[in-house]
From TrEMBL, chain A:
Topology versus the membrane: Multi-pass membrane protein
Listed GO CC annotations: plasma membrane
Subcellular location(s) per record: Cell membrane
Protein name in the entry: Branched-chain amino acid ABC transporter permease
UniProtKB keywords: Cell membrane, Membrane, Transmembrane, Transmembrane helix
Record Pfam families: BPD_transp_2
GO molecular function ontology, one term from the record: branched-chain amino acid transmembrane transporter activity
Transmembrane spans: 58-77, 83-105, 112-130, 166-184, 205-231, 251-272, 284-303
Automatic annotation (TrEMBL), chain B:
Keyword Transport: yes
Pfam families noted in UniProt: ABC_tran
Protein name in UniProt: ATP-binding cassette domain-containing protein
Keyword hit for Transport: yes
Entry GO MF terms: ATP binding; ATP hydrolysis activity
Residues annotated as domain ABC transporter: 4-232
Species of origin: Sneathiella litorea
SUPFAM superfamilies: P-loop containing nucleoside triphosphate hydrolases
Length: 324, 239
């Protein structure tokens, strides 16, 4: 209950922020919200599912490219619906995760550092593939991706302006956050925690650990795919960097700094780190990376639960209970 | 046809034979104990029955079905529950949540309240399981088995680390589970006082095979068992 109250207050503050931060920062914050969505997806699979995916950007990029290809009419000129694009982006990323997950988790399964290395390698392969796939723009990517077009009962509205786009994205992020939180508090959430902490025990109770891992991997990929799909409509541009190593590493740092075992902390970790990056890079130039690195080290060594998760847990957690 | 049939099970680990043509029948509703020195293959046997390991040869039949190479979750769904040697509970979940996960889709409220009473954990069911004392963790794991409600329970050293009073209470609980719930129980244990308290058929295992079977007195007085096993176990000698 206190979890939800704190989250509601934070989302309310985000909703009110355009009144204070002005148009430029509203645009920036919209992109950070999308990164926050990507961080939620990684927190779900890593913090709750115990699957360290070092290539979360691959699902982000897959979602982005599917959205771009569909809404640009590259598959069917008449099929450019944003809704279909968003759904296809989620489904495409989830299906890719299911296929990849089966390869990774079936049998004795791969976990820990090996899993991280393999997912990282797959990301690098996909980034290289997109750089050389000329039908999809190759190194230059796909330009002129149309903005999201919302259609309600025959009336349609394109998300060009910053403010409506911000609120539409915030709406999606809010629904995904509270939906995921609800799921984690259900019986599924218990099974997920159980599969992370003692898979052998869970298996001996009659649960298929493979199914649980596949389901969380696919769900997390769908959320990352959704984030990627929204992202390409903000700048109208899909490029191989969306799918690559850099973004995969960045999202890991955001989530680790925020706190991987708390959706809200991971989400805020992404927003605050990106905001800090904007400010600090103006002041320190490229040296801001050193500050980020130091913050990451402090977080891992002194506050392994995360810089934000620790105070948030203090605010939201009852004695002896895990917070969501 | 026995409830659980273990036929000529062989399992090797890098040249070491953990089970050597192991054969045993377990009748439905029975309570049996398996004893033997460390390394004689007892836990390997449980791993084979529950699908954690696959035998190099031999056959495992449960309720008439050949389950030899089934995955662990499928074997569990058929009705085999297991308590691990080291308490295997979900430490990040509360006591109640551990039981909810174990109870799966069953109507949970009443079952869980009843089990909490049976395992003496009614005081703080919303406590994190990781914060329990060792003996309580053992009891919680037994409680999870009760919630799972399998027809065959395999208990691997259920009283390890327990006090004398807890050990006696655990023996009473296991006997009750067997008699009142009709669950078939196979237990591995080193504590011979506990085994005597169970008052059940006893199988002595040595070098991956059954050396002798009988009741507690027969086993205690058997010269071959004394020579091969009891001589090494002070606890048995004092029992």
């Amino acid at each position: 209950m206190r979890n939800n109250l704190v989250a509601l207050l934070i989302f309310a503050a985000l909703a009110a922020s355009p009144l204070v931060i002005g148009s430029y920062w509203t645009g920036q914050l919209t992109a950070y919200l999308v990164y926050g969505l990507l961080a939620i997806s990684l927190s779900l699979v890593w913090g709750y599912g115990g699957i360290l995916c070092f290539g979360q950007a691959m699902f982000f990029g897959i979602g982005g490219y599917i959205m771009a290809v569909l809404t640009k009419g590259m598959i069917l000129p008449d099929l450019t619906s944003s809704y279909i694009g968003l759904l296809a982006a989620m489904a495409g990323a989830a299906l890719f995760a299911l296929a990849l997950g089966y390869f990774l988790f079936a049998g004795r399964g791969i976990s820990g550092a090996y899993l991280a290395i393999i997912t990282l390698a797959i990301t690098l392969v996909l980034e290289r593939l997109m750089n050389n796939w000329y039908a999809l723009g190759g190194y230059n990517g796909l330009l002129n991706v149309p903005p999201i077009k919302l259609t309600f009962f025959g009336a349609s509205f394109e998300l060009w302006d910053r403010l409506p786009t911000f609120y539409a994205v915030l709406g999606v992020v809010t629904v995904v956050y509270f939906g995921t939180s609800l799921l984690l508090k259900s019986a599924y959430g218990l099974k997920l925690t159980a599969s992370r902490t003692h898979p052998d025990r869970l298996s001996s109770l009659g649960y298929s650990v493979l199914s649980i891992r596949l389901s969380v991997f696919a769900l997390s990929a769908a959320i990352a795919g959704l984030a990627g799909a929204i992202f390409v409509t903000l700048d109208g541009f899909a490029s191989p960097t969306l799918i690559g190593f850099t973004l995969s590493t960045e999202v890991l740092i955001w989530v680790a700094i925020g706190g991987k075992e708390m959706l809200l902390a991971a989400f805020l970790g992404a927003i605050l780190t990106r905001t800090a990056e904007s400010w600090l890079s103006e002041i320190f130039g490229n040296y801001w990376i050193l500050i980020l690195g130091l913050t990451f080290m402090v977080s891992v060594v002194l506050l392994p639960k995360g810089l934000l998760a620790t105070p948030l847990e203090w605010l939201t957690k009852g004695k002896g209970k895990r917070s969501g | 046809m026995a409830f659980l049939e273990l036929r000529s099970l062989v399992k090797n680990f890098d040249g070491l034979r953990a089970t050597d043509n192991f054969t045993l029948d377990i009748a439905e509703g029975s309570l049996n104990a398996l004893v033997g020195p460390n390394g004689c293959g007892k836990s390997t046997l449980f791993n084979l029955i529950t699908g954690v390991l696959t035998p190099d040869s031999g056959e495992i039949r449960f309720k008439g079905q050949n389950i030899t190479r089934w995955p662990p979750h499928k074997i569990a769904r058929l009705g085999i529950g297991r308590k691990f040697q080291v308490p295997a509970i979900f430490e990040e979940l509360t006591v109640r949540e551990n039981l909810i996960v174990a109870a799966k889709n069953k109507s949970q409220q009443e079952i869980i309240a009843e089990i909490l009473a049976q395992i003496n954990l009614t005081k703080d069911p919303d406590m994190l399981a990781g914060e329990l004392a060792h003996g309580q963790k053992q009891w919680l794991e037994i409680g999870m088995l009760l919630a799972q409600a399998p027809s065959l329970i395999l208990l691997d050293e259920p009283t390890a680390g327990m006090t004398g009073a807890e050990t006696r209470a655990t023996a009473d609980l296991i006997t009750r589970i067997n008699r009142e719930r009709g669950m078939t129980v196979l237990v591995i244990e080193h504590d011979m006082g506990f085994i005597e308290h169970l008052a059940c058929p006893l199988h002595v295992m040595s070098k991956g095979q059954i050396l002798k079977s009988g009741n507690f007195t027969e086993i205690r007085n058997d010269d071959e068992v004394k020579a091969l096993y009891f001589g090494q176990t002070e606890a048995m000698a004092n029992a």
